[in-house]
Amino acid sequence: MSRSRAAVILAAGQGTRMKSKTVKVLHGVGGRPMLDWAIDLAERSGAGQVVTVYGAHSPAVRDAAEALGSATALQDPPLGTGHAVLAARKALEDFKGDAIVLYADTPLIKPETVERVFAALQGGAAVAVLGFEPAEPAAYGRLVLNAEGDLDRIVEFKDASEAEREIGLVNSGVLAADAALLFDLLGQVGNENANGEYYLTDVVGLARSRGLKAIVVRAGADEVLGVNSRVDLAEAEAALQTRMRREAMNAGVTLVAPETVFFSWDTQIARDVIIEPNVVFGPGVTIGEDAVIHAFSHLEGATIGEGAQIGPYARLRPGAEIGVKAKVGNFVEIKKSQLAEGAKVNHLSYVGDASVGAGANVGAGTITCNYDGFGKHRTVIGEGAFIGSNTSLVAPVTIGAGAMTGSGGVITEDVPADALALARAEQTNKDGWAARFRRAKSTRKAKKDTAS
Q1: Does 83 participate in catalysis according to the annotation?
Q2: Which of 37, 134, 258, 292 has the most CB atoms in a 10 Å sphere around its CB?
Q3: Residue 368 vs residues 96, 333, 375, 399: alpha-carbon distances, Å
C-alpha cells in the first residue's frame, strides 16, 4: 500500500553568487521561477504536504511559496542543510509517511525520478539518495558504496580523502526517508566538519550505524543541475530547452532549426505544427494542429487555432486568440484581440483590444487606436469586412459585417454592415504645379551657384 508523502524544499540560501537584488530561487528557468518548479515537482510527485524553508534575508521566498500553497518554515541562522530540514519539523509534526528533501535551485528534476526515489523506500531502503555522475565531479559530496552496492556514507568534498575524491558518483542533495526517522537522525547530527555545519548527508552514516539500509537512485547530470550563478542559470535554461525541443519533435512538431527555438515551461503545441527558425515563446501559448509559426516571431499568452499562419516577424501578446486558418503576417502585433476563422491581418499592422470577424481582411498599415490616454477601448470588425490600407480605427468603433473602409481613412464612427466608409480629405489636382515648382527651384539653385 502506498504511503503518504511530504516534501521539504530548501530555499534559504543567500545566493550571493547571482549578484542580484532578486533572491536566487525566484530567478526564472523557462519563464518560471525556480521555486515554482520545485513546489510543482513536489505536488506532481504526490506530496500531500509541502514545506518551503526560507531564510531571514528572503521574505519574498516565503510570500511566493505561500502564494503557491506551500507551508513555510524559517531557518535562522543558516547552519547547514541538516539544520534547514530540521526547521520544517514543526510543520510536519503530525505527518506520518515518507518525506523527501528537494531544492529550490534545482529546477529540472522530473517527477518520474522522484517516484523512483520513493519506490526505493517501498523496496526496503530506510534512506534513498539521488546521485549522478558528472563529467567533472569537482566539489560535490561523494557517495561511498559498500561491497553490496548499497550506500555506506556520503563524504563532503572538503572532508574527503584523496581516494574518496576519486569517486565519480556524487550527491545531488535529494534524500528521502520515513519522516519520523529522518527527523530522529537529524537530531543526532553534529557539526564536527570543515565547515562547522550540520550536514543532511550525515543521516546516511547514522542510519547505517543502526543497521539500516541506504541506497542510491541515479539520475542524469543535466536533470540535477543546481543553480548558484548566472552561468549555472544559463546552463539550466539550455538543458531545459534541449529537453523541450526533443519532446516537441518526438510528439510530431517540426522544428526547422531546433537550436534557435525557445519555449516557455508551459508551451503546448499540437502535432504537425511547423516552427521556423528564431521563434520565442513566452508563457501561456497553445498552438493547434497544422499551424505554421514563421521565422522571427514572438508569442506570449496566445492561442493559435488549427491551420493558422503566424509571421514572419509577428508579435502575439497576451490575450491574442487566432482562429482556425487565420493569418497574422509580417510585422503585425496582436494584443488582447480575437481573429475569427479565416481572418487576415497580413502586413505592418497593430490590432489591440479588438475582435475581427470570420473572413475579414485588415489592410497593411492599419491600427486600432485603442488607448485615449486614460483607458482602453474596443474595436469590432464584422465578418467579411475589408479594412483599407493605412486605416486608423479610433475605438470604440464598430465596422459592420461586409463593410469596407477606404485606404488612408481615420474612422471615428460606426460603419453599418455592407457600407463603404470614406474618411479622408477630398483630393485636389493642380495642373502644371509640379513643373512650375521644379523650374523655380532650378532657377534659384543656378543663381546661387553663379554667386558662389
Answers
A1: no
A2: 37
A3: 60, 11, 14, 12
Q: For residue 172, how many other CB atoms are within 10 A of its CB?
A: 27
The cell numbers describing 16, all together, are 550571493
Could you report the per-residue pLDDT of 401-421, keeping only the tens digit for each?
Answer: 999 999 999 999 999 999 999
375-397 burial string, b = 16+ CB within 10 Å, else e?
eebbbbbbbbbbbbbbbbbbbeb
Task: Extract the C-alpha cell encoding 243.
Answer: 529537453
Residue 419 to residues 10, 351, 414: CA-CA distances in angstroms? 65, 22, 10
Tallying the residues shown for the chain, one arrives at: 452
Q: Mean pLDDT, to the nearest integer, of 236-258?
A: 98
**Cβ–Cβ under 8 Å, residues 184 and 92:** no
d(CA 419, CA 438): 42
Nearest residue to 97 via CA among 1, 10, 212, 204: 1
Q: Per the residue annotation, which of 57, 83, 347, 377 is the catalytic one?
A: 347
